[in-house]
Amino acid sequence: MKKTKSLMNHGKKLILCVFCALCFIYQNTVFGTPAITGQNDSLRQVILNTKGKEKINAQLELAKHLFEIENKEAKSVAQSALSEAKQLRDKTLQMKAFFILGRISHEVNNINYSQVYFDSALTLANELDNTWYQSEILLRLGINQHSWGDHLEALQSFNMSIQAGKQGQNYRAVGASYSMMGTIFRVNGLYDRAIEYIIKSRLNYEKAAYEEGYAWDAYLLGRIYADLQLHDKAMDYFEQALETYEKMATTDNNQSGVVICYEQIGDLNLLSGNTDEARKNIEYTLDIHTESGSKYGISNAYKNLGRIEYTSGNYVLAEKYLKDALAIKKEVGDQLNKPSIYLYLGLCNINTQRTQKGLDLILKGLDQAISNNQKRIQIDIYSKLNEIYLNLNNLEKAIECQQHLISIQDSMLLGAVNIKMEQLQGIYEIDAKNSQIEELEQQNKINRLTLKQHRSSIIFIIIGFILTILGVVVIYFFYRRLRQKKIQLEEANAAKDKFFAIIAHDLRGPIHTQTSFLQHLYREFDSIEEKELRKLLKILLDSSESISDLLNNLLLWAQSQVKKMEVKPTALGLTYVLKTTLEKLQQSANLKQINIKLETDDNLQVMSDADMFQTIIRNIISNAIKFTPRGGAINIKTFASEKNQATINISDTGIGINPDKLSKLFDISFKSHSQGTENEKSNGLGLILVKEFVEKNNGTIHVESEAGKGTSVIFTVPRA
Q1: Is the separation of the CB atoms in 295 and 273 below 8 Å?
Q2: By C-alpha distance, which of 84, 78, 158 is closest to 113?
Q3: Which of 434, 436, 500 minimizes the C-alpha distance to 471?
Q4: Global pTM?
Q5: What SS3 class is residue 251?
Q6: What is the sign, positive or negative, of the torsion defined by CA atoms of 6, 9, 15, 21?
Q7: Where are the domains of the chain?
Q8: For the structural domain made of 569-718, what CATH number should be given?
Q9: Run of H or E including 624
């Protein structure tokens, strides 16, 4: 259970890292290695000297070779091919052109256009019944959905890609889809399922003789076993992957796979206390990055060497590596790695008797981690600060750090539980569907053999047909019964997970507090004054009472079931709620230099559920900040309106909404995935949740917007 929680704490970061790596592995799934310049020149000559299908095929081939290095030319060539294919009314060539345009759009991070092109290609592939291309297109659609964070939709697409790929014998696409599904299961803590799917991926890569995919799956298995703290098995898989990547590097001189393996092997050696071997591993990655000129890679190598030297007690050398890493991180604009570098720099200073400077560096790293919303790093920093302040006998600061630590763990644990409860249902449904498909496929094989053996007899054909129908019916009813039992088990598991999450969090805080202060009391008993001793005993007494109350509440909670969300209207001061919510969002607005103006009646009160109303305000203002350019403005006005209603108008000077999207803004079947003005992520569900909450509180909502001229969200709720 600890392993699952640890993984979920890393969930978002892992998803991003895995997605980037998978895109690298799959970038040649269809096209292979880009052609050399001479081949491109030959294709251009063919395009100039031919017409019709031969010319279009040459255009498509050239676009394949160009899209990763000259995407503008590739797009122009592919669009020309599409136009000519439409004139010839050749659906196969149109399908290939749409598919290549989707790949090009994905390469330049234009996911919306990429999705449109892939949808068009899939429609044509379905019309042509081309299962090979169906599997390839569905794989790409799933990767796009994965990049948006729509993991359940991505699982559905990967699952359909597998079925189509089996029919079309596109084993590379099948292997890639299994690998992606295994990665999603891993992020959700379903390790056994992840291993099962990655092994299926390896089997299909073997069929396709795709060495790079096979090596990537070995690397993923190593990551899983490393998460499970099974270091020996993890090392075996990393070495398997490394062997293949080194072999490939001798032919294509691409060291990317070699580097990621050595980084993981070095990390395992460091965890095992083999610092000398870890140092050799990371120094080798530094050599590779230095040769390739990758500043980002060099900075990571310096950071890892700093960790190794700190662990070895070589604080001066560790500090030098960390400073070098920090300088390069600033140069390349990498904000995510700075907090951990500041943490280890601070620890090096503290261990060399420069306590105040060390604390300043650690606090600087904490500010950066808070700015980046890196909760896992915040936990590490607060934990170290707690130890440092206890050693300095600064109990007030130690308590403050402990409280921050508990608060962050609370949000992460509850978030992990929610993710698991929401996604497990979809995952289990896909597994059930796969089981049914496999059973039906097996039944169909039996039926085909039966029909072949008894082809000369009409009677046996009829009997075989009837048996097939009966078998499907039996499987269907059996599946329904299993699904009902599965739902009951899932509900029980969800309740269990939530119960354990509550116990894990709420007991951890008071008990950890007791342990910390008892250890301090034991070590410093002779030097503690009576006044301070009474203060410590009071803290311990409060902690014990908290544990007692908590246990009573948990016992009562265990006897009940989780109920659906209920609306609990209460009188709320509108100005107070708006200001409280704005305080939490002000930092985001300040970062984009957005001015928020509030015009409200201090005496105006509304009747609404407090949590729901804060969620409504937070989502609307957060959207306004997200889609307003730097230096823009947001105006919030409130006033009493007719029929005993209060009206809240939140308007911005942002990019606005196109009319076609505006009409579908609250349609749950239409999910918009537009990015903010500074590439902020949006899953398209915020306003749908806002509308539901407004209506649950007997209010109304509508949106007024014009592209390029901003947006106004106006909603009403009853006055108190």
Answers
A1: no
A2: 78
A3: 436
A4: 0.50
A5: helix
A6: negative
A7: 411-558, 569-718
A8: 3.30.565.10
A9: helix 610-626
